[in-house]
Write a sequence for this structure.
C-alpha cells in the first residue's frame, strides 16, 4: 500500500452538465486515490454525505462497494443521473424490493404533485 503524503495534489475539473447541479462536487480522482490507498478491492466504503455521488463513481472505478447516504432527495436523483450517464448499461434498483429507481422516483413525484393523496404530509415531514 502506498501511504499518501499529507497534501494531495489532484487536478480539479470544471463541472460540466448535470455535475453543476450540486454546489460542492469534488473530483472523482480524490475518493479514487483514497480508496486505492486505504482499502482493498471488494471492501465496503461508507460515505455519509453522498452529494452528487462522486464516491459511488470512484467505487465503481476501483472495485469497491460503496454505501452512501444523502439527505436531499434531489441530490439522490442527481447522483443516480450521474451514475446512469456513465453506466447506462447497469440497472439501478432499490435494494429493499428490487424496484427500478425510475418507478420509485415517479411514485415520489406523483405523491408530491397530489398533496391530497399524501404529498403534503410528505413535504411537511421533509
Ligand atoms: C459537501 S456535500 C458532498 C459532495 C460530494 N462529495 C460530491 O462530490 O458531490 C455534502 C452533502 O451532504 C448532505 N448532507 C448534509 N447533512 C446530511 C445528513 N445529516 N445526512 C445525509 N446527508 C447529509 C448534503 O445535502 C450535501 O449534499
Amino acid at each position: 500500500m502506498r501511504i499518501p503524503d499529507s497534501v494531495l495534489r489532484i487536478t480539479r475539473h470544471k463541472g460540466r452538465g448535470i455535475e453543476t447541479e450540486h454546489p460542492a462536487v469534488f473530483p472523482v480522482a480524490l475518493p479514487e486515490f483514497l480508496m486505492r490507498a486505504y482499502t482493498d478491492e471488494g471492501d465496503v466504503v461508507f460515505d455519509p454525505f453522498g452529494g452528487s455521488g462522486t464516491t459511488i463513481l470512484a467505487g465503481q472505478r476501483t472495485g469497491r462497494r460503496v454505501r452512501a447516504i444523502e439527505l436531499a432527495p434531489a441530490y439522490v436523483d442527481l447522483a443516480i443521473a450521474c451514475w446512469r450517464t456513465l453506466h447506462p448499461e447497469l440497472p439501478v434498483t432499490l435494494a429493499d424490493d428490487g424496484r427500478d429507481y425510475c418507478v420509485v422516483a415517479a411514485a415520489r413525484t406523483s405523491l408530491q404533485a397530489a398533496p391530497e393523496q399524501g404529498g403534503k404530509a410528505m413535504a411537511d415531514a421533509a
Q: What stands out?
A: Confidence is low (pLDDT under 50) at residues 119-126.
